[in-house]
Amino acid sequence: MEKHNLHLRVNGQRYDVAAPPNRLLLDLLRDDLRLTGSKRGCDDSSCGCCTVLAGGAPMLSCVMLAASYQDVEITTIEGVAEGDRLHPLQEGFCVEGGAQCGYCTPGIIMVAKALLEQNPNPTRRQIADALSGNLCRCTGYTQIYASIEHAIKKLQAEPAEPVGRGD
Amino acid sequence: MASFSIIGKRLPMVDAPDKVTGRALYADDLALPGMLVGKILHSPHPHARLRSIDTSRAARVPGVVAVVTGREFPNQYGILPIGHDETAFAVDKVRYIGDNVAGVAAETEEAARQALELIEVDYEPLPAWFDPEETMKAEANWIHEDKPRNIEKEYHHRFGDVEQGLAEADRVVSERFVCGEVTHAAMEPHSTLASYNPEDDRLTVWSSTQVPYYLHLTLANILNLPHEKIRVIKPLVGGGFGGKSEVIPIEVEAACLSYKARRPVKITYTREEVFYAHRGRPVQIVELTIGARRDGRLTAVKARVVQDGGAYCGYGPVTILYSGALLGAMYDIRNVQFDGYRVLTNKPACGAMRGHGTVNTRFAFESLLDHVATELKIDPAEIRLRNQLQPPCITVNQLRVTSYGYPECIRQVVEKSGWREKRGKLPFGKGVGIAGSHYVSGAANSIIRGEGPHSTVKLRVEPDATVVLLTGASEIGQGSDTIQVQLVAEELGVPVERIKLIAADTERTPIDLGSYSSRVTFMAGNACLAAARNLKKKIFEAVAPLWDIAPEELDARGGRITARNGAGKSMSFAEAVAAARKQFGELEAEGGYAPPAEARGGKFKGAGVGPSPAYSYSAQVAEVTVDTETGQVTVERITVAHDCGRALNPMTVEGQVEGSVWMGLGQAVQEEMIWNKGRLMNPSMLEYKVASTLESPEIDPILVESIDPEGPLGAKEAGEGSLAAAIPAVANAIYDAVGVRITSTPITPEKILRALREQEKQRAKGNGGAR
Question: For the domain with range A4-79, which CATH number is right: 3.10.20.30, 3.10.150.10, 3.90.640.10, 3.40.50.2300?
Answer without folding.
Answer: 3.10.20.30
